[in-house]
Amino acid sequence: MSQKPLFQTGANMIDVLLYAALAGLGVAAVTGPLGAFIVWRRMAYFGDTLAHSSLLGVALALFLSISPTLSVIAICLVLALILVVLQQQQTLASDTLLGILSHTSLAVGLVAMALMPEVKVDLLSLLFGDLLTVNINDVLTIYAISAVTILLLLKLWKPLLAMTIHEELAKVEGIPVTAVRTAFMLMIALEIAIAMKVVGVLLITALLVIPAATARRFSQTPEQMAIFASLIGCLAVILGLGASWFIDTPAGPSIVLSAGLLFLMSLSKKN
Hints:
By secondary structure, the chain is mainly α. The chain has a single domain, classed as ABC transporter involved in vitamin B12 uptake, BtuC, CATH 1.10.3470. 79% of the residues lie in helices and 0% in strands. α6 packs antiparallel against α8. It is globular. The termini are far apart. 44% of the residues are buried.
C-alpha cells in the first residue's frame, strides 16, 4: 500500500519527509516516558483500550463536526472514568473489563462510521496511521500537546513513581492517588489523540510499550529508562520512516516493526 504523494517532487518531497519526521519524533519523545509507567504498572491492556476507543472519538467528531483531537481526548477520559467505576464494583476482573470496553468501543466506532455514508473516511489511515500526509498544522498540534504532556509528567513524576512502587504507601504519605491517576489517564489520552496520525488506532499501544520494554534492559534507574525509551522510540521512527520511503511500505506499521526489531536485538544483551 503506497503512501507516497506521487505528484510531489523536489522541495515538496523534502517537506513531506521533514513534516513526517518531526511529527513522528514529537510523538515518540513523549510516548517513551509514558510507556515506561505503562510497563511498570502493567497497563498495556489499559492503553490498548483507550486506543481502540479513539475510533469512537473520531466517529463522534465527524457526527458533531468538531475537532477529532478534542473528541478523542473526551472519549478516552470518559472511558477511563467508566473503568474506574466498574473496577470499584469488583464484579469482574480488570482484564475482563478492559477486554469488554476495548472491543465494544472499537465496534461502536466502526458501526457509527458505517451509519454515516455521506462522510468520506479513510479507515486504513485511522487504523494504521498516515504519517506521510501530515502538514505543518499537524506538526504544531503534536508539539503543543506533547509539550503539555511533558510538563504534566515532570510535575507528577515523583507521585507517579511513588504510586508505582507502592500505591497504598503513597496514599498514606498524602499523595492524592485518585487525582494523580486521573492526570496520568489524561496524559495517555492526549498522546493517543496525536499518535493516531502517526501509527493509527491499532498500533498506538505498540509505540507506548515496545520502546519502554526495550529500554528496560539497559536502564539502571527510572529516569534512565524514560530517557532511553524516548531515544529508542525516536530511532524506531527514523528507521520506519526510512523503510516506508525507500521500499514503499506503510509508515505506521514500519515504525512499529522497527521498534519490534530493536526489542529483539536487545534480547541479545545479557542481564
